[in-house]
Amino acid sequence: MNKNLKEQVLRSSGVNVLKCMRCGKCSATCPSYDEMEYHPHQFVYMVEKGDIETLMKSESIYKCLTCFACVDRCPRGVEPARVVEAVRLAAVRQQGGNRLEPSDIPALLDEDLPQQAIVTAMRKYAK
Amino acid sequence: MIAVSADADGSEKICRGNTAVSRQKGFAMETFTYYPGCTLRTKAKELDTYARASAQALGIALEEPADWQCCGGAYTTAKDEIATKLSAVRVLNSAKEAGQPLITVCSACHNVIKQTEYDITRDEEMASKVNNYLGLAEPYTGGTKVYHYLEMLRDVVGFDKLKEKVVNPFTGRKIAAYYGCLLLRPAKALAMDDPENPTIIEDFIRAIGGTPVIYAQRNECCGGYITMEDKAQAQKRSGSVMSSAEDMGAEMVITACPLCLYNLKKNSGSDLPVYYFTELLAEALGLKEASNE
Question: pTM (2 decimals)?
Answer without folding.
Answer: 0.92
